[in-house]
From TrEMBL:
Signal peptide: none annotated. InterPro entries: GGT-like_enzyme (IPR052896), GGT_lsub (IPR043138), GGT_ssub_C (IPR043137), Ntn_hydrolases_N (IPR029055). This is Gamma-glutamyltransferase. Keywords: Transferase. Pfam families: G_glu_transpept. GO terms for molecular function: transferase activity. The keyword Transferase applies.
Amino acid sequence: MNDLVQYDPLYYPYASRRNAVYGRNGMVATSQPLAAQAGLDIMKKGGNAIDAAIATAAALTVVEPTSNGIGSDAFALVWVDGKMHGLNASGSAPQSISVEKLKELGYEEMPTFGKVPVTVPGTPGAWAELSEKFGKLPFEELMEPAAKYAEDGYPVSPTLGFHWESAAKKFNQIFKDDIYKHWFETFTPNGHAPKIGEMWSSQGHADTLREIGATKAESFYRGKLAEKIDEFFKEHEGFLSKEDLAAYKPQWVDPIKVNYRGYDVWEIPPNGQGLIALIALNMLKDYSFTEKDSVDTYHKQIEAMKLAFSDGLKYITQQDQMDVSVDDLLSQQYSDERRKLIGEEALEPSAGEPPRGGTVYLSTADGEGNMVSFIQSNYMGFGSGVVVPGTGIAMQNRGHTFSFDSDHANSLEPGKQTYHTIIPGFLSKGDQPVGPFGVMGGFMQPQGHAQVVMSTVDFHLNPQAALDAPRWQWMKDKVVKVDPSFPDHIAQALQRKGHKIERSLYHNEFGRGQIIWRDPETGVLCGGTEPRTDGEVAAW
C-alpha cells in the first residue's frame, strides 16, 4: 500500500484526537459536518465526486456563512480520467470602476467593506460549469440539500457560532450606513448572532439556491437574480451592474506544478496565490530534512516562504498582465539564486528579479477514481457586508486586494481580476492521483500548503496527523506567528536566529485544512479534517 495511506498517525498535544478516516466508495472532507453529509448523500444517490463537491459547496454557503456565500469566488482542481483540470471562477472588477473615480469620491485606498470592493461573484458559475463538464446528476438536484438546510434551518456549530458572534459585534460598531441593513436582517434576525446550538434559517437563501439550480446559474448572471443585484447596486450608487454579470464566465485553465521529491504538487495559476507555495517548495526541495520538529527545518521553511511571498506580492495579478511568467518564477535557475539568500539568520525579505521569459475548502473522492479539490470564499469572513435583500446573497469584497498604485502589477483596472488568496491544492505521483488538499485562511493558505506537503512527503504523516501538527505563519518582515501548540524550545531558538516570534492565543489563526489521499493499488481513501474547526470526513 501507499505509505501515505498506511502510515500510523502522530498526534500533537492540542489535537482533536481523531484518527484518520478510511473509506472506499466515496469520501467528503470539509469544515462543516452537515455539508460533508450533503455531499456524501449525493454520491450515494449515484453522483460522482464532482456532484458531491458542488452539493457540499452549495451547502457550505448556508451552514458556514461566516466564511463564504453565494456571492463568493471559487477555484477547483479536478482529477478525471487520468488528467488534471483547473477551473478559475474568480470574477473581475466592474467595468464602471477606476482609481480616478474612487479618488474623486474621497478614497485613498480600496476600502474593506461596502459597495466599492465588490467584484463579480464566480461561485454560482463554477458550480454550473463543473456540473456541465463532469457531473452525472441533474444540477437542480445538487442545490436541494443546501436549500433544505436554508429553508428548514439547522443548529449552529461551535466554531461557526464563535465567528458569527465576533462578526456581529464588530459589524454593530462599524456598519452604520443603510446599505448594510440587509446583512443584519439576514444574519441577526433576532437582533443578535445565533448562539451555538440555536437554529438559523433563511428562506431567501433557499429560494435563490433553487433558482440557481433550476436555471443552471443563468438567472444569477443573465436573469431574475441578476436584475435584483443590478437594482440593488443602482439604488446605492454602486459599481457592479447586470452587464458585468452577463459578461462573466468561469475559465478552464492549465494547472501549474512543481515536482517535490517525486510528487507533483499542483496549484491553480495566477491570479491565485498558489504560485507562492510552489516557489517556496522549489527552494526547499534541494535541502535534506530529517526531523520535522527541529530548528533548522522551521528556519528554512520560514525563510523560503518569506522570499516566495515577497515575489508573489510583487508579481501576482491577472496572469496575462503579469510582468514575469510563471515559468520564470519556477525556473531552477531562479530557485537556486533565491535559495542562496537563506543563511543561518532571519533575513529581511524582498522580491527578486527572475530571468524574463475569513474561506471554505472541501475535498471529495469517489470509487471511480475522480477527485476534487475545491475552495470558495467571500474574503474576510462575511465579505463586504452587502447582502442583496430577500436573496441571502452575501457579496464578496475581493476588490480590497487591488492597489491604487498604477505602477503595481495588481493595480485596480476595470474588468481586471485581482490577486486572489483562495487556492486548492492537489498531489499526484507519476500518472496516479494521490489526492486533494487545502488549507483555507487568507494569506495563511500557501504557507499551510507548503507545511502540509512537507509533513506528508518529508515526514510521512498521514492526513489527520499532518493537519494536527503545529503551524507557523509569516506575517511581515521578520515577524512570525506560531500557534499555541508550537514547541516553546524551538520558538526560543528561532528567536535567537533573528526571527521575531509571536505566540498566538488562538488556533484558528492558522488555517483550516482538509486532505484525502488515495491508495493507487486498492483505491482505499484516507482522509483527515482540521482540528481547528467543526470539520468532518464523511466516508462511504
